[in-house]
Amino acid sequence: QVQVVESGGGLVQAGGSLRVSCAVSGISHYAVDWYRQAAGKERESVAAISSGGSTNYADSVQGRFTISRDNAKNTMYLQMNSLEPEDTAVYYCAASPVGKSIQYWGQGTQVTVSS
In DSSP terms, which residues pair with 99 in a beta bridge? Predict the structure, then answer.
């Protein structure tokens, strides 16, 4: 069975840092996207990493967030620095097996940034 589990969310002051994790099991050779959804807002893409390690970032987080993956541990990370209240959202991880038009989603982890 495929499982995607996010962890590491919490409360942080503006200007601080958090690292959220995404543990994936049951699949191999996949890309990962991080999404977030703030209360009352549409879901938006934050960062993505391909199975080969190439990365992309939303303009709003460019230079502040870093996505990475540890293939041996099947775990993806999103390092978030210089956090702003506008970053407050539920952060979701989605894994996409290469060659398939499907995404496996986790349940999300709450990140709250206080001013």
Answer: none
Q: Tell which residue, 27, 49, 36, has the closest CA to residue 89.
A: 36
For residue 55, what are its two tokens? 């990365």
Tokens linked to 89: 């959202």
- The amino acid at 97: P
The stretches in the chain having pLDDT less than 70 are none
Burial class, 57, CB count within 10 angstroms (exposed 0-12 / middle 13-18 / buried 19+): middle
3-state secondary structure of 34: strand
Show the tokens assigned to 46: 């934050």
Paired tokens of 6? 């996010």
